[in-house]
Design brief:
With about 160 residues, the chain is α+β, with helices and mostly antiparallel strands. Helix content is about 20%, strand content about 15%.
Length: about 160
């Protein structure tokens, strides 16, 4: 486990060997028999998941995904022994209140991946139709480091 708990820059780095191995494992999937019903009441239909797997194994541009993530200001830190990866986007408004947007461990740092400032909804109490800059929020998207987009397990540097 790393003893480094300070905030440090992070970049996604997917080795070619890891992408090749992932594609091989996806292609080697042992599929269950087809569902017994014509609708989705038993879950995602086999044909749908097979098409998604085919796309990920053959057509998905992993390097474009890596580049899109690495275009964002990403960092790593450790909190209570858990490695945390986060994307930190500064507000374009002075004195904006900080806002943390989180997602579950099965979610992805890619949703959303476009840096943006979260603006509150417009209200009729303002004299113009734009939100007040003092109520804009710089957005940060932390997630546990062991989730899919991080290349390091929690606690490792």
């Amino acid at each position: 486990m790393s003893t480094e708990t300070g905030i440090r820059p992070f970049q996604v780095d997917m080795p070619d060997e890891a992408i090749t191995d992932l594609r091989r494992r996806i292609a080697a999937t042992r599929w269950p028999s087809r569902e017994l019903v014509a609708d989705r009441s038993q879950g995602v239909q086999l044909a749908t998941i097979q098409e998604l797997a085919r796309y990920w194994a053959t057509d998905y541009d992993w390097r474009a995904c890596e580049a899109k993530l690495n275009a964002l200001p990403q960092f790593m830190t450790e909190i209570d022994g858990a490695g945390i990866h986060f994307i930190h986007v500064q507000s374009e408004h002075e004195n904006a209140l900080p806002l943390i947007i989180t997602h579950g461990s099965r979610s992805s740092a890619r949703s959303p991946t476009r840096p943006r400032t979260v603006e509150p909804p417009r209200t009729r109490s303002t004299s113009c139709c734009r939100p007040c800059p003092a109520t804009a929020f710089p957005a940060s998207r932390p997630r546990p480091a062991g989730t899919p987009a991080a290349s390091r397990a929690p606690g490792r540097s």
